[in-house]
Protein 1
Amino acid sequence: MDTLRKLRIGASSTALIILTLMTTLGCGAKSLQGSWVRIDDEAPQGQTIKILTEERFAFGLHAKNEIVAGGGRYVLDDETYTETIQYHWMPNLVGKTVVFDCAIDGDIWHHTGRIKTGGGVLVIDEVWERIE
């Protein structure tokens, strides 16, 4: 009986350690490098693509006779993804920094952040899928 109880406690402790590791790894344990396509319901008409290298990001969309684009540098920590915008189709966003809460599940990346603009606060809530 004691052996069985020790096995149960050991298995529970191992499961708790694994669950804790998965929770604390967040986005920082995964590489964002590569190409992504935006798939959330709020995505604009057309296909938005985002490409990330080790330190830089760029996105673009061609919709309704205009090109929407931006990019800059990013930093990835355990549970946050931070963009510093160096160029953008909305010039008032250049130089701004946006801190996103982020999560990755397989090839799906979800991030949510807020950025102050001249007209208030812009909430950014996006879901991306990794593409080849």
Note: The chain has one domain: 27-131.
Protein 2
Amino acid sequence: MIELQCPVAGPLQLQGEWFQNGSMNITVKNVPNSVYLVIKREAKRKRRSLNSEIIQALEAEAAEAERRRQMSKLRKELDKFAASLPPLGDSAPLIRADRER
């Protein structure tokens, strides 16, 4: 239950869920015709509805965005770890000594 405060009517209570069956309905406006035609063609090729194809494309993009976010986080952790390591000295003397053996 959600409670809102209305300045005129006082407290309002809303019951229900924002999502229906764990899903969200959205409306997309002004889709370029070229994009629409590609999605429609792919849906037909894969024997899916246009709606299913759009959901699949959104899921794939969401997964890719999450992967990029995780990679960015891991890169920051790796950079932090690398900065914590002691500096390396010049390896040339070690290589020369090894060659002289």
Note: Strands lie at 2-6, 10-14.
Protein 3
Amino acid sequence: MLIVHTTFAKRGEAEKAAATIIKERLAACASVFPVKSFFIWKGEFTAQREFVLELKINDGSYQKAEKRILSLHSYSLPQIIAFEVKRGSREYLQWAQMDAKVKKHLKHLEARRQIHAY
């Protein structure tokens, strides 16, 4: 499992991305929270309020999740970083993994439906 972090300038943008990514089953869970970020951008010191989108995803979903984040993002160079989860509540990790199994099963059912439609 990975924890993926990205930041957005507006709460609504972060919440829309969270909802989209969850509905598309690219992540098991998403959280949005405000932060104050300090960084150098184009040679200038910047301090601004941003909104972190934290996603809990399976390793195999990372590339699709990153691509989707980029498609939803207004920043030209968004922070998208991932941390590997080495430990955690067994029950929570099992729940998060189960979501990936459900997603795989739904894809299988959809593929069967398309085959039988012809």
Note: The chain has one domain: 2-117.
